[in-house]
Amino acid sequence: MAKKKYILTATLPDGYVKTIGPTAAEFTHYWRIVAYLGNGKTEVFWGHVKSLAEARKKRSAAADAGKNRGWERHDFEIVELVRTTA
Questions:
Q1: Whole-number Å distance between alpha carbons of 39 and 67
Q2: Neighbour-count burial for 1-27, b at 16+ CB within 10 Å, e otherwise
Q3: Which H, E and C letters describe the chain, residue by residue?
Q4: 46, 34 in Cβ contact below 8 A?
Q5: CA-based diameter of the chain, in Å?
Q6: Entry pTM
Q7: Are the CB atoms for 21 and 5 separated by under 8 Å?
Q8: Is the distance from CB of 47 to CB of 58 less than 8 angstroms?
Q9: pLDDT, tens only, 21-43
Q10: Residue 60's pLDDT band (boundaries 50, 70, 90)?
């Protein structure tokens, strides 16, 4: 029997809403990096993971990426996903 599918929704503090799904994966958190480049532009990286601990590990990886890619600065955010039935 197929797993039940859900719609996952992340609402970030700036009001941005990301919808994922339908999916049967057990994702619990969404992370986003907004990287500020030296030329005034930005890059956005995001993903979803199965635990808060997994999401927190991305924070140190973001700092390393910033040094390697020459970002002026970056914002890293983690929010819990809200599950609704598909």
A1: 16
A2: eeeeebebbbeeeeeeeeebbeeeeeb
A3: CCCCCEEEEEECCCCCEEEEEEECCCCCEEEEEEEECCCCCEEEEEEEECCHHHHHHHHHHHHHHHHHHCCCEEEEEEEECEEEEC
A4: no
A5: 52
A6: 0.87
A7: yes
A8: yes
A9: 999 999 999 999 999 998 989 99
A10: confident
* Identity at 66, one-letter amino acid code: G
Dihedral sign (CA 69, 43, 46, 55)? positive
Instruction: Give the tokens for residue 78.
Output: 């983690």
> Which residue type is seen at 76?
F
Q: Give the position of tokens 């994922």.
A: 20
- Give me the amino acid identity at 82: V
CA dist list (Å): 50 to 7, 10, 43, 77, 80: 15, 14, 24, 16, 10
